[in-house]
Structures are given as C-alpha cells and as structure tokens.
Write a structure and sequence with these properties.
Elements: H1 3-14, H2 18-21, H3 23-30, H4 35-62, H5 69-77, H6 79-113, H7 132-150, H8 152-179, H9 199-214, H10 230-259, H11 262-266, H12 271-280, H13 282-316, H14 335-359, H15 363-368, H16 371-392, H17 407-426, H18 428-439, H19 441-454
Helix pairs in contact: 1-8, 1-10, 1-13, 3-9, 4-9, 4-10, 4-16, 4-17, 5-6, 5-16, 6-7, 6-13, 6-14, 6-16, 6-18, 7-8, 7-13, 7-14, 8-10, 8-12, 8-13, 12-13, 13-14, 16-17, 17-18
Length: about 450
C-alpha cells in the first residue's frame, strides 16, 4: 500500500457510523449549552485522537512490522501485556466493532430496501426487529472477509473507493448548508447558552460518543509491513488521515447545525439524512442515506483488513492459536486470521439477534457496550510505550519523533486514564465485564507460553 491508500485506510476506518449516528446523542447531552459547547466536544475529541496519532507515528516508524499496537505494547511492557491487548481485541473490541458496523450497515440497507426513505430516519432503532437485519449484517461480513482473503491490495482499493464515497456524501451535506445559507432556522446562534446542568459532567458524557466517532485512528500502524516505505508513509498516513477527519467532522457539524435546530438534531437517529431532507428534499435525503451505507461499509472493511494482522503477529510469537500465523500461498494474506475474526463477529451478530427478544436490548447497543472501555485501557498503554522506549532504546532509529514530546503523549495518557476511571465509576457493570474478559486471558497466556517454551521455534 502507498501513502494514499494508507490515508484512506485511516480515514475510511474512523469515518464510519459515528458521524451519521452519534450527533443526536451528543446534542442530547450537551446541546443545552449551545452549538459552541457541541463544537468543543468534537474539537477536543479530534485533538485527543491527533495526540495519539502523533505518538503512534513515532512508534510505527520505529517499529514498522505487522501488528501495530500489539508490537508497541510488547516491546515496551512485555509479552503478557501485549497478549492481553490482543486477547481483548479478538474477543471484544475488533469482532464487536465489526459486528456493530455490520448491523449499522444492515439497518440503513433495510431502511432503503423497505422503501421507507429518509423520512423514516428516526425509525432506525425500531428497524432492529426486522428479520432481515441480522442476515444482511452477516452477508456484509462474509463479503468483506472474501475481499480481504483475496489480498491486501483488493481490500485497500475497496477502502479507497468507499472513502471517496463517504467523504463525498459528507461534503454534499456541507454544500447543501452553504447553498441554503441563512434560509433555514439552524442552531448556530447563540453560540453559547447558559445550561441548567453541570457543564463538565455534560461534557464528559458527550465525549463518550465523540470518542466512538473518532475510534479507529490506531489502525494505520497495524499494516506497516505491507506499506511501501513504512518509515515515511506510516507517520504521514496517521497524521494526514487524522487531520482530514477532524476537519471533516467540524465542517459537517457546522452543516448539521446550519440546517437543523438542536432539538431536531436531538430527535433524529440519522442526522445527515434528516439535514439533507430538510435542505433539498427527498432525493437529497436518499442520496445521503446511500452515502452513510458506503461509509459504514468502508469502516467495516478497514477494521477487517487491519485486525487479523494483530492476531497473525501474536500467533507468530506462539502465544495465540498457531493456525492464525498461516499465510495464503497464493494471496499472501493471513487468511485464517481473517476468517477466524469474521467468524466470531458473525456469532456475535447471531447471538445478539437471538437474545434481543428476551433482553429488549438493541442489537447495536448489545454489540458495542463493552468495546470502548476495554479499548481505551490499551490505547493509553500504547501511547505510554513511547516514554518507555525513549528510555530503553535511546539509540533506536526514529525517522519521525512525536511533535510536542513529552506533553503531547502525556496529555493523551492522562485523558485516557480519566476516561477509563470515569467509565468504571459511571458504568461499573459493563466495565467490570470488560475487565473480566481481559483477566480471562491470564490462564490462556500461561497455557500458550508453556506450550511455546516446550517446542522449538519453527
């Protein structure tokens, strides 16, 4: 992959369902304080992601091998911590994200197939009862698994194509806002309002949705070994991709709030389609709905493309299922890791769909509940690796050094720690389940390590 494909990978994974689905939740939590407070949530989330990307750029250039975050944690904190990260990625974060994105794709596809159009944007949650939803989601995962088994080049070009489509859809919303500038009653003024609740508490609650929308910026480093000139292109793709995402998110939120009041944003579960519908009518809403479909499909493809490289690296270290280290003789892809990851995601979709009538929990929420907390435990650890490696490997080749070191990574680690602690206090059941799944990796690591020590290296 070249630089353009690397940037498309980062942009394509991060811009998925979030910018289309989460603005109403952010407005519900902090909208009482005005558009200025809403914009602050998106800007801070972007700056935090950029701080992490700047740090991962140094680590990715220094250690340009397949595995990304797994390799960073292994080299800084040892094999056990790296294994627990990979264990969490396989059983919780990666497969859960793939399954959640596939369900979000399916909801939009079924919405269009049923002929409900953009006018039914607020009915997305109710659509989860449609029997087609889990089957379309499973079909989406199977199709993307096949593409990524055929070769990283195919997966990368799919990523480029759908990144162009999703960015085009969002640019169309921005264009509609410019076209209708001042003709509709939006919510840009007053910029700040005196809210009746605690601003800091509202800000913290809104940040959870913002961080989900930015989630995935780490993935560009996972395919370092498959990039041309990785020492140069990995840091560039991480930084350029993250900057593009921040700019797009800020501009799109300006467009949403130019076209809609805060109350209208709060009431729509598909804000982009609702904004386009109000700006230019049904055809605009339908076009943006197709754009959301492309966006989510591209994000799922990028997640499936990058995840198996982590499990492949673990299997090569002989601390995971050994079969996942197999590379396809013809396509040169870690095909078993791709199939294992997607198979587990399909099981998650099926189990969530089967359990929905009994739990009354939405499929999307069930799949996503445990992902973010577990992921941010290791995001903080991955960024902290730069401090350890600067001390333990001072003479290592570093084609790029983190801008603003040590303040940039330190700020990220502090905010990540605060986020994890806040989630543990406010959502103790989900957080403890996440920690429990991570802890289950301890006996698994002990077993695999003993087997690895007992046999010679291949």
């Amino acid at each position: 992959m070249g630089l353009g494909q690397g940037v498309s990978l980062v942009v394509g994974i991060v811009i998925g369902s979030g910018i289309f689905l989460t603005p109403n939740g952010i407005d519900q939590k902090i909208g009482a304080f005005g558009f200025g407070a809403i914009l602050m949530v998106w800007v801070v989330g972007g700056l935090l992601s950029l701080a992490g990307a700047l740090t991962y750029a140094e680590l990715g250039a220094m250690l340009p091998t397949t595995g990304g975050q797994y390799v960073f944690i292994r080299e800084a904190f040892g094999k056990l911590c790296a294994f627990l990260f990979g264990w969490m990625e396989f059983w919780v974060a990666r497969a859960g994200s793939i399954a959640a994105l596939a369900v979000a794709f399916s909801l939009h596809a079924v919405l269009i197939y049923r002929g409900m159009g953009a006018q039914a944007a607020t009915q997305l949650p109710a659509l989860e009862a449609d029997p087609l939803v889990p089957w379309v989601a499973i079909g989406c995962v199977l199709l993307l698994a096949a593409i990524n088994v055929l070769g990283v080049r195919y997966g990368a070009w799919v990523q480029v194509a759908f990144t162009v489509l999703k960015v085009s859809a969002l640019l169309a919303v921005i264009g509609m806002a410019i076209y209708r500038g001042g003709q509709l009653t939006g919510s840009l003024t007053p910029f700040f309002r005196p809210g009746k609740t605690n601003l800091l508490a509202a800000f913290g609650a809104a940040m959870v949705a913002s961080l989900w929308s930015y989630d995935g910026w780490t993935n560009g480093a996972a395919v370092s070994e498959e990039m041309k000139n990785p020492q140069r292109n990995v840091p560039r793709s991480l930084m350029l991709g993250t900057l593009i995402i921040v700019a797009v998110y800020v501009a799109v939120n300006w467009a949403y709030h130019s076209l809609l009041t805060i109350e209208q944003v709060q009431g729509s579960s598909a804000v982009a389609a609702t904004a386009a519908l109000r700006a230019v009518g049904a055809w605009g809403g339908l076009a943006v709905a197709f754009g959301a479909l492309a966006s989510i499909f591209g994000a799922a493809n990028g997640t499936i493309l990058t995840g198996p490289r982590i499990f492949y690296a673990m299997a090569k270290d002989r601390v995971f299922f050994p079969g996942l280290a197999k590379v396809h003789a013809r396509f040169s892809t870690p095909y078993r890791a791709v199939l294992a990851q997607c198979g587990w995601a399909i099981l998650l979709i099926g189990s969530a769909a089967i359990g929905r009538p009994y739990t009354q929990e939405p499929i999307f929420d069930t799949l996503f509940t445990y992902v973010i907390f577990s992921s941010w435990v290791f995001y903080g650890m991955g960024v902290a690796a730069v401090f350890v490696l600067r001390r333990t490997r001072p003479d290592a080749d570093r084609p790029y050094r983190t801008w603003g070191y040590p303040w940039t990574p330190a700020a990220f680690v502090l905010v990540a720690g605060a986020f994890v602690l806040n989630t543990l206090l406010t959502q103790p059941i989900q957080s403890l389940v996440g920690l429990g799944i991570i802890a289950l990796g301890l006996p698994a690591y002990w077993l695999w390590s003993r087997r690895a020590d007992a046999r010679p290296a291949s």
